[in-house]
């Protein structure tokens, strides 16, 4: 057995999972093997929802593999990145035994999935540095080894910090943890980053998993299309642990249309605009007297510290602008996270905060 599959829970290594009616390669024109209705729902004008969907839609899987430059055998499609996170924790972590390493302040679903599995959560906080809030990769490696962690979650670009991790650093961490733990690189905001995707590391590091999503840059949050990319043997294990029909047909069709060349070209234009607006908004916010610090960001958001975060939050709400209150997160008792919107929306943010200061 490879070192990689040795990290999978022993009781799941030979687990076959559920074999759905759509997972069998059968041919015919009268389908009576899945107890489906013979007629479409009266409201289903396309008649596309009567049948159960393909568990891993072939055309969508191929389009995603092309988009992310990997082989289809290395890719699993699921219900957003959240499902991939949950599958990894359930497939690798024995309850009460195998730990998960996270780097707060960070996306909360890593710890949520771990706790639902009763997997110990080991926190290695981000460190305040001149360039922002950054992970201490040496400390992460030591913590993973000492705790016998099975999973290390790296959010890059980090949500909410905005920092991204150079590929060479990720590669060194993966090498150090080979045979010990998987290094899961969550690239939900990768399209907005200057750092290339960690998928480039997959050929040399079988213990790296890369997560991507169509929710952010591709504006398909409600479609819930996420991807895990890893060694083909691990992808097969995750597939056997996945629910039978994870990708609804309408969502798959919408995602496939969103990956057509003309749609991708428009997405690229919008990403470029967001990156430009990120620079402009960062400068405008940094010039406000109530702002303590605007962190550099590789995502489509800015983490901002305020002298009076409560007043800033309330002033934005009064102007109809809803931002993410980060004050309950570790180290962020004075911070808000502001998504980069359209130029007009970003102007409203700055205007509302200026009005707040003028009224103070």
Description:
This protein is an alpha/beta fold and 360 residues long. It folds into 2 domains: 5-259, 3-Layer(aba) Sandwich (Aspartate Aminotransferase, domain 2), CATH 3.40.640.10; 263-359, Alpha-Beta Complex (Aspartate Aminotransferase, domain 1), CATH 3.90.1150. It has 10 helices and 13 strands. The chain has helices spanning 58-68, 80-92, 109-116, 137-147, 167-176, 232-241, 249-258, 261-286, 309-318, 343-359; strands at 75-79, 99-102, 121-123, 127-129, 132-134, 149-155, 182-186, 208-213, 225-229, 291-294, 301-306, 324-325, 335-339. The strands form 3 sheets. It has a 7-stranded mixed beta sheet with strand order 1-9-8-7-6-2-3, with helices on both faces. Strands 10-11-13-12 form a 4-stranded antiparallel beta sheet. It has a two-stranded antiparallel sheet with strand order 4-5. Helix 5 links the parallel strand 6 and strand 7. Helix 2 crosses helix 3, helix 4 (137-147) packs parallel to helix 5 and helix 8 runs parallel beside helix 10. The longest helix is centred in the last third of the chain and has 26 residues, at 261-286. The mean pLDDT is 95.
